[in-house]
Specification:
Blueprint (H helix, E strand, L loop, with lengths): L8 E4 L3 H10 L6 E5 L10 E4 L4 E4 L5 E2 L3 H9 L6 E2 L4 E7 L4 E8 L19 H5 L1 H5 L16 H15 L8 H10 L10 E4 L3 H5 L1 H9 L3 E4 L3 E7 L2 E7 L2 E4 L5 E4 L3 H7 L9 E9 L10 E5 L5 E5 L2 E6 L10 H16 L8 E11 L3 H4 L12 E3 L12 H21 L2
Parallel strand pairs: 1-2, 1-14, 2-10, 7-16, 14-20
Antiparallel strand pairs: 3-4, 5-9, 6-9, 7-8, 11-12, 12-13, 15-18, 15-19, 16-17, 17-18
Bound molecules: flavin-adenine dinucleotide (FAD).
């Protein structure tokens, strides 16, 4: 088969990186085709109907902080602002199951972290000098483990920095990359409460990010081909000339471009010699079909439990556990019971397990260590018409929606720049 039109952009992978690339390029008169291996879009950020609970559930509960500017502008662009919700002020309630202590971190609405200076608002039992220790994390030259820069025994670390960085980097911060931690803290905590407002999907994350994108793209003539898995390619003189899909080969013209927006382990297998992260960390999500008790906060941080964050949605409570490899071999029901035990205890709900589902994503993100971070490639490849996108490319951020969307936009801009120079 030949590529449909001169100058077609082929995007491989319909996760958020591929979708963001398509949105960036759509409407400029260029033919665009998205090739997706599975039967659905959204990749790791998809939602789907679940038979066990009779609900639509998310592959993972996705939290977006206001400092994630690319995600929020993307949501505005696809017309889906109404699908996200956030409190007017950045407030983070916590409970420590070791001593049942509860507190609310109130970061306020300003552009500067004034909360650090207020004894009432900062992390309980911390002093201003504890926060000065953060300077070490924000000022260093070569990447190193976060654990070598922060005092892991301090209350600030245990009650805020560890849970925050564990969620953001999906790795125990003791081994996580300080460069990535600095990027996240610099865009959120250091920017005051305004940058920390937590946005969650009103319903399913797919209804906020994926379905509106597909409608946006359809209205602009972008076609999405499902069940279309890329298995190889051919090229000469620095240009790809053929894409091999399970359904057969696709011959490219010199004007066509390709954005490869597949996970790192797929890209590494497809592109000979490409350096990619090779280690991954898992995330466990549990979903329970139950009405949250009145007054349950949209999200609650949990210390010293199995659960790390508990989310309250209409008719559903969900819990997330990051860097959860240690839990992957437990029987699913046992895991659901352990997580529900925390939820029931915290909210005074019956111990009887409600209808539940466990979602285990083994390769949820690349392992955000300094060594793996150093393996992330740029979007430009040795093939002049092949560009990379994905949360694992060199975005400077951990593997998040923000990074995925930024990477897709960058690849799209590189394609647009190339097309301006191709006669
Ligand atoms: C459980 C979980 C919780 C998370 N929580 C958060 C959060 O709270 N906040 C946040 O910002 N981020 C979160 N993330 C990270 C976020 O989901 C990812 O960073 C983002 O979705 C990655 O998008 P992507 O397009 O780079 O990759 P993917 O979503 O992996 O998309 C790649 C796409 O390529 C397709 N594909 C693969 N191989 C081929 C092939 N050969 N041919 C064609 N198509 C192919 C795949 O099917 C997939 O659709 C979470 C992730 C998980 C798993």
């Amino acid at each position: 088969m030949r590529s449909p039109d001169r100058g077609t952009v082929h995007i491989v992978g319909a996760g958020l990186a591929g979708l963001a690339a398509a949105v960036e390029l759509a409407g400029a008169g260029r033919p665009i085709v998205i090739h997706e291996a599975t039967r659905h879009a959204g990749g790791r950020c998809r939602s789907y109907p679940d038979a066990a609970t009779g609900m639509t559930i998310d592959n993972g509960t996705h939290l977006i902080l206001a400092g994630n500017g690319a995600v929020l502008s993307y949501v505005r662009q696809i017309g889906a602002e109404g699908e996200l919700r956030a409190p007017a002020e950045a407030q983070f309630p916590f409970v420590d199951l070791a001593d049942n202590r509860r507190w609310i971190l109130q970061l306020g609405t300003t552009r500067f972290p004034w909360w650090i200076f207020s004894r009432r608002r900062r992390v309980p039992d911390t002093a201003l000098r504890d926060y000065l220790g953060l300077v070490r994390l924000l000022a260093f030259s070569t990447d190193r483990p976060i654990g070598s820069l922060l005092d892991a025994g301090s209350r600030l670390y245990q009650r805020l920095l560890r849970p925050f960085l564990l969620a953001a980097l999906n790795i125990d911060p003791s081994e996580g990359s300080a460069t990535l931690a600095r990027a996240v803290i610099g865009a959120t905590l250091m920017q005051g409460g305004r940058a920390c407002r937590p946005f969650l999907a009103r319903g399913a994350i797919g209804d906020a990010l994926v379905e509106p994108t597909l409608r946006y793209l359809k209205a602009r003539g972008v076609s999405v081909s499902f069940g279309d898995e890329l298995v190889g390619f051919d090229g000469h003189e620095g240009m790809l000339s053929r894409l091999d899909f399970t359904g057969g080969p696709l011959h490219l013209s010199a004007h066509d471009s390709v954005i490869l927006a597949v996970p790192a382990y797929v890209a590494g297998g497809l592109v000979p010699g490409l350096k990619v992260p090779t280690l991954f960390r898992g995330i466990v999500n549990a979903h329970f079909r139950v009405d949250p008790p009145p007054g349950a906060p949209p999200m609650l941080g949990v210390l010293n439990g199995t659960s790390e964050w508990i989310f309250a949605h209409a008719g559903r409570m969900s819990a997330t556990i990051s860097d959860a490899g240690r839990l992957f071999d437990l029987p699913r029901r046992r895991l659901a019971e352990m997580i529900w035990h925390d939820v029931a205890r915290i909210y005074g709900l019956p111990e009887t397990l409600p209808s539940w589902q466990i979602v285990r994503e083994r390769r949820a993100t690349f392992a955000a260590t300094p060594e793996q971070n150093a393996l992330r490639p740029d979007a430009v490849t040795r093939w002049r018409n092949l560009f990379l996108a994905g949360d694992w490319t060199a975005t400077g951020l951990p593997a998040t929606l923000e990074g995925a969307i930024r990477s897709g936009r960058r690849a799209a801009r590189l394609v647009a720049a190339r097309l301006r120079t191709v006669p």
